[in-house]
Amino acid sequence: MAKDYYAQLGVGRDASGEEIKKAYRRNARKYHPDINPGEKASEERFKNLQEAYSVLSDPRKREAYDRYGASGAPGGFGSRSGPGFQGFQSKGFSARGAFNNFGEIFSEFFGESGPSRRHHRERGENLEFSIAVSFLDAVGGTSRRINFHRKQRCAACTRFGSKNTPDQAICSSCDGSGQVRQKHGSKTIVTTCSTCKGNGRTKSNRCSRCHGSNLEVISEAISVKVPAGVDTGSRIRVPGKGNSGLKGLASGDLYLVIEVEPHAFFGRQEKNILCEIPVTLTEALLGARIEVPTVTGKAWLTIPAGTQSGQKFRLRNKGVPGPKGGRRGDQIVKVRIVVPEINDDRSREILQELEELHPENPRRDLGLK
């Protein structure tokens, strides 16, 4: 039996090229193997659609088909010879032959706004939340229980956001594609259909639970590992925990943005920990060995004799670990000399004697007495 390509696309023999294109687009969306995995009937229908469109979308091939039919010409469409068919050979069709994935169908019609951009747009949205982490947990790492809301595929309807079969109530504004093309000068703008909100189905057939969006909001709780060394602004990615994608496409990701709470004693500069430690006048003058708090416990610091107030010392490898297990930073300890209160005559005599033994004028370099 001769193939009727017009019937396969659902158009009349006088259909314009634009009508043929729209018919193919509408049917290809419905029968593509990515939308109907494992359904042999849909795969065969899609193969026939490709074959029909490859002929009727080409004016030269369509003219030859109208004259000879699919098999009326010598050699048919599979031959390199025969009137009107020189140089054309179908090479056969497969369900994924001309379009390797669903997005490529839209490349055929929308050009640059087709496969990658459309796939990215229909993929689930990424979500982003801020979480507060204590200073010490940010340095050493921790685990957090996160409660959040995200959109998940509605359990009450089909993947088309309709409560019945996807064949019913196709949107007349976009022919079920969910998109509308508008000419603006030399450019073609592709926008979401305002009638069906991009679902390809009319309001009368929409699911009452998700209102045709195919997505419903759910509450979810997950445990997340906060790695050692994060800082304010660090982002933790949780794959697949964003909003679900439309029509069965992949979910987006969840991003947690870290906000580190300040610490009463420690500060931070990249991988280095900063702190200020008080010492007595005697410790600064004569030298001492003192205990210093660190983010991992206590450590000993040697204060050399003659240490000045504001002088800084370094404790190696007592800072923040690298984000991928690299070398830890250091702890920078700033010394602050605490001057004692002198309330007795004997102490004043001792200090005056010290001044006579070690006369100093720290303002000499400034030309001052």
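Next protein, fold it too.
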Amino acid sequence: MIEFVDHTGELELLVSDATLEGLYAEAVRGLAREVAEEEPAGGEEERALELHSSGPDTLLADLLNEVVFLMETEGFLPSRLVVHEVAGGWLRGTLAGRAGLDVRPLVKAATYHDLRVWREGGLWRARVILDV
């Protein structure tokens, strides 16, 4: 499940999934959905991804910031994230999507303000504030 809550100059992204891998994948999907209303047609490209961070919450912010960077520098709009391994603050995976697009991200960055990843009621949940 993905939910957005508007703030002045910010957007709060709330994500939940049954697995931690799914939580990160949903967050990437939510960010991409906010940038483009529909996925562009054409062949997909892949980007290998390996991130190291201090924990699951900062890993989420770093992941989203990497996606924003790829959008801005390569016009890369991800359609999905496949997580191969995740442990603590480490993630190895593959981003699949389209490159060379005229992507103008609404989001400038994922912030550490009120950043949280937690387990509740059998689900992984996350909250991240996006600077817009």
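About the second fold: The beta strands are 2-7, 10-17, 45-52, 77-87, 90-98, 109-110, 116-120, 123-131.
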